[in-house]
Amino acid sequence: MTPPTVPAAELGALAEKFWTALENADEHAAVELAAGAVEGGVPPEDVLLDVVAAAQRRVGARWADNLLTVAQEHAATAISGRAVAAVAALPAARTAVPRLGHAVVTCTDGEWHALPARLVAEVLRLRGWQVDFLGAHVPVRHLVAHLHSTGPDAVALSCSLPVRLPVAHATVTACQAAGVPVLAGGAGFGPDGRWARTLGADVWAPDARSAAERLAAGLPSPRVADPADRERPVPPDHEHARVGRARSQLVAEILRELPERFPGMRDYTEQQRERTAEDLSHVLDFLAAALYVDDPGLFESFLDWTARILAARGVPAHSLAAGLGVLAGKLDGLPRAAAFTLAGQAVLARPEAPGPAGSGHPVRPGSLPV
């Protein structure tokens, strides 16, 4: 049976009401709204993707524009998760449909953003898949053990942050070695899935509906873990690993020298210095990820986004440029890292002022910039 078509205006109005509930941290209202819409005839998939997920994207944009605190963003995400669970538990979401296959939906090890993967899992269930949803932060060895014991047809792997690309690569390779093809998704693989292809994923999907459609069409046999099979092999110079190993030392050295280039830092409180150290760690994490996939655009995009975040919080972007300037002098023997850093400085030196943060890079570090 073809589900009813709901006018876009009606879905938009529902999304607006759901957003208001999130903004007010009103869990009961949000859950009742989502469940009530399904009980009133709105298809569960539309509620999940056009109401809950749409409002959640707005949460991220509002946080980026400094209009929501981290605590408010976390509360909104938790409420959205409760709404997804409530919709999934309704009889309308468990209507018998032909079984299409067995899929495992999981996040990469170290990935705590589980809501996007949960939405994919629920959409696949609605479309007729048996789904094992493993949630956030799944170590590779435990995922592989699960694959061997359950024999699924596919793995849907979610990665929200590019800093997880090395472990995502290990996950893709391990799943394929176990004979299971991998569908990659999430902002961490790039806006067009370019890094999913770089790392050899069998298929990439930009959203939950596309993931369901591509799985229904059938995945190819898993690729052989051969560097020549990738669109662009991971560079053999291991600069990404060297930057990662030196991260703590580099952060300490940058903090020691940064006040000479950015005098305003001399008046920072201890808390501000700690936050600056966190942000520098994020910069190095993204540099390492860019080196891993050999794409300076990853690092440049992150820096542009970070500058917008800083601008939204009244912090001059040249404080970030000053930190890069110190970093550039610490990269002897790392020619690609030095080149990526110089390219990043050029991005920050562009004359145009950063626009609204919410319209920029789709990912964010775990802490707010100072």
Can you give a write-up of this model?
- The protein is an alpha/beta fold.
- Helices cover 56% and strands 7% of the residues.
- The chain contains 15 helices and five strands.
- The chain has helices at residues 8-23, 27-39, 44-64, 70-88, 115-127, 140-150, 165-177, 194-198, 208-217, 239-245, 247-261, 270-293, 296-312, 318-328, 335-348, and strands at residues 101-107, 129-135, 154-158, 182-185, 203-204.
- A five-stranded parallel sheet has the order 2-1-3-4-5, with helices on both faces.
- The longest helix is centred in the last third of the chain and has 24 residues, at 270-293.
- Mean pLDDT is 88; it is low at 353-370.
Q: State Rg.
A: 22 Å
Biggest beta sheet summary: 5 strands, parallel
Round the mean pLDDT to the nearest integer and report it.
88
Provide the succession of SSEs: HHHHEHEHEHEHEHHHHHHH
Total number of beta strands: 5
Cα shape: globular
> Total helix count?
15
Helix % is 55-70%
Beta-strand proportion: 5-15%
Low-pLDDT runs: 353-370
Secondary-structure map with pairings?
Blueprint: H1 8-23, H2 27-39, H3 44-64, H4 70-88, E1 101-107, H5 115-127, E2 129-135, H6 140-150, E3 154-158, H7 165-177, E4 182-185, H8 194-198, E5 203-204, H9 208-217, H10 239-245, H11 247-261, H12 270-293, H13 296-312, H14 318-328, H15 335-348
Parallel strand pairs: 1-2, 1-3, 3-4, 4-5
Helix pairs in contact: 1-2, 1-3, 2-4, 3-4, 3-5, 4-5, 5-9, 6-7, 10-12, 11-12, 11-14, 12-13, 12-15, 13-15, 14-15
What's this entry about, in short?
With 370 residues, this protein is an alpha/beta fold. The protein is 56% helix and 7% strand.
